[in-house]
Amino acid sequence: MSIFFILIIILWLYLSYFILSMVIDKNKIDIKNLSIWDYDEYITKRSEEERIYKKLREKYNLEEVAIKGKDNVNIEAIYIKNKSNKWAILSPGYLEDAKSMMFISSYYVQKNYNVLILNNKRRYVTFGYNESNDIVSFILYIQKNYPNSKIILHGMSIGAFSSLLINKYKINSNIKCIIADSSYTSAYDIFEYQLHLRLGILTLPMMFCINLIYRLKFKKSLKELSVLELMKKSKYPTLFIHAKDDDFISPYMTEELYKLCTSEKEVYYLEGNYEEAFIKDNQKYKKILDEFLDKYVRR
After folding, report:
1. How many Cα neighbours within 13 Å face the side chain of 276?
2. Phi-psi region of 191 (alpha: psi -120 to 50; beta: other; left: phi over 0)
3. Which of 33-37, 198-202, 205-209, 251-255 has the highest mean pLDDT?
4. CATH numbers and ranges of domains, the chain
């Protein structure tokens, strides 16, 4: 009997390791077979992002920059320079790079912001752990070199969650506001939600194993990567946005974050699926941004 249970535990651990690897290890993830996107639509979107990237490169002083992060790893970003003291730090979503934020970056460039788009080339997706540290590193870089800057953070999914995590850092910052598009409540919650939604398996034993393996690898628990308590003492005006039909990150998570947030806040649910709101509901999205940024960045 004991051997049977040992074999069951080994099986659960192996399966958990396999699932976690297929989610966080970019070397093992096959974008083509990933169920988050329709692959043809994904290719079309990437082509359009490449077109905008080339257009911005021709028109503006666009650079690829790198600084040392907290863990002494090079953090890369695309930098679009403007003659202004306004800065937008843009953080892409799950498995996305800087070019995936070209649609939104063009908006900020037209509004005369200096734009830094994080280009996460780390092998592992940590669902907010390394990603939030990278944002902090660029905030400190801007503060040191441009002390009169006004900084806004705008992120998508993991980028949104990582931007909200900035509330936990003691930064004497110039941050004026945060735009969180499609954030989740915690790393544990989004893992559990996806396991139940896509695999329909027993989430409790699987999540225990996944959380254990994650902790062993990153010295951090998935449950520790949460913004729920942070929202109860949030420091910055926050704009929450979520696509109504998002089937990757439930809009309910944004609703929960909005209710808990104690700083000045707004929330909007727009047309589209996962990370599609800016494209599918473009005019409304930009109008919301205009009004929100006018309110808080001009202070």
Report:
1. 20
2. alpha
3. 251-255
4. 1-34+198-219 (no CATH), 35-186+225-296 (3.40.50.1820)
What does the pLDDT look like over 252-264, one tens digit per residue?
999 999 999 999 9
Among candidate residues 169, 105, 110, the one with its CA nearest the CA of residue 143? 169
Structure tokens at 228: 């729920």
**C-alpha span between 284 and 291 (Å, rounded):** 11
**Cα 188–Cα 191–Cα 194 angle in degrees, nearest 5:** 145
Confidence of residue 115 (pLDDT cuts 50, 70, 90): very high
